[in-house]
Amino acid sequence: MKLFLYNHFITKIKTYSFVITLLLLLNSCATHKVQYGKNVSANETENATDTIKIAHTLFLVGDAGNADEEQAQQTLELLHQKLKKANKKSTLVFLGDNIYPKGFPADKNDSEKALAETKLTNQLKLTKGFKGKTIVIPGNHDWYSGIKGLENQADFVTKYLNDKKAFLPRKSCPIEDVKIDSTTTLITVDSEWFLEDWDNHPTINDNCDIKTREAFFDELENILNKNQEKTVVLAIHHPLLSNGSHGGQYSWEKQLFPLEKKIPLPVVGSFINLLRKTSGVSPQDLQNKQYTIYAKRIKTLLQGQKNVIVVSGHDHNLQYINKENITQIISGAGSKSEAARAINPNDFSYGGNGYATLTLFKSGDAKVTFFGNENNHEKMLFEREIIKAKEINWAATVDNKFPPTVTTSIYSTKMTNKSLFHKFLFGQHYRKYYSMPIEARTATLDTLMGGLKPIREGGGHQSVSLRMSDPKGREYVMRAMKKSATVFLQSVAFKDQYVVNDFEQTYAEDFLLDFYTTTHPYTPFAIASLSDKLGLLHTNPVLYYIPKQNGLKEFNSNFGDQLYMVEERPADNHLDGKNFGKPTNIISTDDMMANLHKDEKYSVDQKEYIRVRLFDMLIGDWDRHSDQWRWAEHKIGDKVVYTPIPRDRDQAFPKYDGTLLSILMNVPAIRHMRTFKNKIDNVKWLNREPYPLDLAFLKTAEEKDWIEQAKYIQEHLSDSDIDNAFKNLPKEVQDGTIEDIKRKLKNRKKELQKYALEYSDVLDKTVMIAGTDKKDKFILNHNARKSIEIQVFRMKKEGDELIYTKTVNDARTKNLWIYGLDDTDVFQVTGEQKSDIKIRLIGGQNNDTYNIENGRKVIVYDFKSKENTYNLDSRTKTELTDDYDVNLYNYEKPKYNVISGLPNIGYNPDDGVKVGVNINYTVNNFKQNPYTQRHVFNAFYYFATGGLEFNYAAHFPGLLGKWVIDVESLYTTPNFAMNYFGFGNETQNNDDQLGLDYNRVRIRKFNVSGAIRHVGRYGSEFSVQPIFQRMTVEETEDRYIDIPNIVNPIVFDSQNYGGLKVKYLFKNADFVSKPTLGIAFMASATWQTNLNDTKQNFPTLESILGFTHKIDPNGKLVLATLIKGKAVLNNNFDFYHGAALGGDTDLRGYRNERFLGNSYFSQSSDLRFSIGKIQRTVAPLTYGILGGFDYGRIWLDGEDSKKWHQDYGGGLWLNAINVITARISYFQSPDEKGRVIFGAAYSF
User: Fold this and answer.
1) Cut 0.85: pTM above it
2) Which architecture characterizes domain 962-1239 according to CATH?
């Protein structure tokens, strides 16, 4: 270890360490030659399979956009010969980047149109003599000419092939699925749609129902769930995994020639590649921030599936990757070639031209074959079976004779036995009913409902369910009474990483399973009877014990031998059901919403909807988001009316008791989860989840409508009806608890009109009206004081047709948002009376007309780049912007303002224990990113000194377009602020003799700063920040600061400073809490002056540069390094503004601010090694060790010091599911005592 203590060693480290960091990427072994993973033999191919057993063959070729070049034409001709021999059960898939370099021109008269058509034609000619189907998907180069260019390419392809479904997805949508045959589904995805900056494409999503990226993920999840029993091929240009250049793997040639122009840049080339790989600055690289979001979310959806094959282009090579339960095929070598690497044991790569075939067999097996173009001859390079048919291990001879009833429970007694302390903190809940033995009828699927056959597992976010169908095709759902904690965590809390297996057998799983006992497991069986009395549509759940049996087939592995709730699935195969109102159709909320926007003939039955929403409040059911509804369609003349069918009533009558839990339930994220009591204690928060739906559907509802339906419920639901409904529960649970629920239900019914009025007031605060995708006219009349009459018309050839009228007044309404949606709309504001309601008119697509005669409190929003007609008075404000989110109608946008407070506690050695409060107030108005305003206030009291500290911060993310405004302030009475050892690179530290407090300085601070900050899409921030500081140093006796002339004595008086700081910041990491690949860069310039003496001004420059890079492919061994530098450019500064070195982020073996001068430089480096996992904890943990080394020094004008300081050390770290890291480390310097460091993250 003495080696670390000598300055000559440090000098060598200083000279070479950064070069070593740069050379990290030189371990890249990407080549143009064939590479195989360690488990793959170079001669390995699968046994030939009888072609009779082949169900379908997909021919995969991507990035063929240079098809006018000779090498590409040779490759495509080899494919053409193969295609001519293929039968009808074949599909040719072009995987994007179909026209290099800029896609199809947006202007059909463009001079480059002919070349673009030639490149497309050279590819599409492959279909000559091909009996199968051809599908083309877009890539990033196909977007270079925008939406119009993409549409032009789609037109050319569909006309050439005479097939409207040849270019997918259609209508510039992001996703569309195609049935290949009865056992295979092809999902096509336009991945560049996700990666694009939508503000640059005002017409994006004009013709598509999917308007948000979140809606895209929902649609993909739905399609995957619907196709569980099939083989799914996901065709998507940008791969989820890659070992080519887009995945950060480079060849030696790329290290030397990193740019497109072949200029040799040795070492510099490696540094450029390092920057590219860690920064993700290219939106086309997997490391890019947006690309990472896209890939992580889709991988998370796929990792629980065993039937999905991902096929992509993008990287100009051939790859097969099998990792993280993802099967990834890359065939992007149609016209270009680039090196690639086989990293994982089963991988394959080839950096030459070629294509791939995916063969799907009738058995369910699948294999991939790669073909290369070697000297204009086709060569099979690799073949592998990638999916094996499902093996059904359930014995068909199992005894299917079961007793008529079985007595069992949902949970075991062990699961519900809790200590008194646990019950004190978290309550009794309905826990005992989960382990209470219940006698239930036994069901066998072959006789239940006339005989049920399982179809597929359900896609619920809590329940474990199985979808089944009867001989008539009507579908039912059997839902386990025991919910899944891991499925809930996966779907709600961890959307970007797969954690189902990680959370099994953890305390987090135990806690959630116990939390589920806050709802009574058997009360849902009373809901149908209550609903019948009120004329509400509903399902009819029935309790059964379902054993494992032949009828469950392969689903026996996950289902059976439990209690289940079986009920109808509200869908279009139950149109004869009386409990669904015998409708003409049953559709989802999204489909119903799309119809409402399509035409004014579609509407929601407002009376029925209000009644069912009041029923929700009556039973305390807070879980009423959009997927909890289905809609019964009824045709009445030329009108279509939708009646709500509520489903999943498992959150009714909840009980959140316990001392700690009752406090935690006031946290804003879960504040809407209210305990079922005699009275509704907060009507507004109980309805937080359905609030956006209520605003969207109840366009014309008034206070009287709510009162009318409240009376209806009171008159039609008698106390005896309530008593009878609960007789449907198992007799074992019909005890005092049920009596208590019935009593509370009756009491709540008595005051239902009061609750109706309260919630009607909540809904009237912000009124949101949306037109249709046809020509609408909105007339706002200020004809009466303090009120506005709203008339909505449909403009038709024969004249305007009045659809509805609504009047709002100042006493109840503060905001009025009116969306025109698609087509050409007219907005007219008339009348001279005054109103304080803030009116926002959002035009949407096409040429809208604004005739504003009374523009007081009116703001017009529309696209800046689109033509509209504006007849505005001088009082009207306009915000014309191509900001996608501003112009988008999103019914989920309205949110409550939120105020919350939490206690806070802390400690520092000088001031002892501090206690305080943290108060947050979040404003959610029209512009949200993700909120409109946030105000944070902290106050602390220090017991040891009686000191106080106050912090206030405000953030306004949408006030200046894409710029964020920040305001921050701090006031403290004198408390520990920093250490001071004097100026110099070789100052003394006498901790041993004088103690730690000797060098501590107490400062009273008052700081105020404001900033405007621009946040980029890929991790960059640029800010300009005016600063004000008032600093008063306490002259504490018997401390270093008390030595005469050790500091400028003016610091003991209040010093006021003003200044300006300009900062650029860029950060990128694959995982924030446990990065294996990333970069951090910051550069700032600050100018400050002492307002008491303006001659005392000083500029400061500061910068950091840090890299994190995995050394092994799986990221078990990671190198992280951070370089820091700072310089104060003159000597006009006081000690607390100097360049200070020492502490957790630079010289970790030294105390904070250990050395002080005009400037400093330091580098810190860590090697972090992941050892293993700990499962049986609160959350799954990964643990490991780290070893670190730091060096650095400061410079002081007038001091002649050659010394470099250094330290080394190591430590342990724990990481919980890539969310939070805890570490403890010990660092030793040669000059001073070692330091133990605790932290909630890595030092850098």
Assistant:
1) yes
2) Beta Barrel (2.40)
